[in-house]
Here is the input.
Amino acid sequence: MVELIKNISRIEIRYYFLLVVLLYVLISVVINEYLITETQYYRTFGEQLGTYQIDKMFYLREKWKWLGYLLVPVIISIKVFLAATVLKIGAFLGDIHIRFRQFLHTTILAEMVFVIAMIIKTIWLFIYSSDADLKYIQYFYPLSAINFVNYKEIAPWSVYAIQVINLFELLYWLVLAFILKGFLKRSIWKSLGFVLSTYVLGLFFWVIFVVFISLNFS
Here is the structure.
């Protein structure tokens, strides 16, 4: 176990980060090119908008979707940086001497959990989204609580909060704890306790923030 953690810590993080970004971009391309089609637009907005408006919406999406691919590395960078920052703040307050780079290394490695979740989502949608609308494609998340509610009836501001309740998020906490165990030089349970009191607490406040923003701008 100790040797495995040491090997993980030696991974060239730049190449690993590049792999994560490339996988996210590939997933986005697959979803945009093969799952989100003009049919989904008509299925979603056909009862509210006219043909011209729907065609215009789809045209604008096709025209600017490349921008979304360019933003992927930016979004992932911000995500892992914020997670590492929360862990570092927790370590500072707890008088734990671990460099920020080690926390950043940890959050980048653990991000693969969410990459796997997106791969599973994409495969699921390929199999079951033939008659789905855009909301289903957007809201669906594997092994999430949102799959047990009627996505057509829930308020938009609550979507993210419900999506976060999923088994992949729990697995992410465990992976963080497993990797940090080597840096903290503590048992897996104490390492998990550190993750719960830092990252998970930060995630809780982040969800509240997102819900607040959604309520005020929806």
